[in-house]
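SAMPLE LOG
Freezer: B-3
Tube label: C17
Construct: single chain, 60 aa
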Amino acid sequence: MCKALDDIYNDGVKKGTEENESINDALIVALANAGRVQEIVRCTSDKEYKKKLLSEFNLN
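STRUCTURE (predicted):
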């Protein structure tokens, strides 16, 4: 039973990681297309700013 729960948990973690990567990729593309390249760097270190950008581009 523990193995089954571990597998379910690990699958969830993997799915969440993949979804997060997709959202991050979409944000980078949106910022680059908008000519806002400097903001790509900023959102990697400023989590609140990244949340604002995700909301602005409807990626949250």
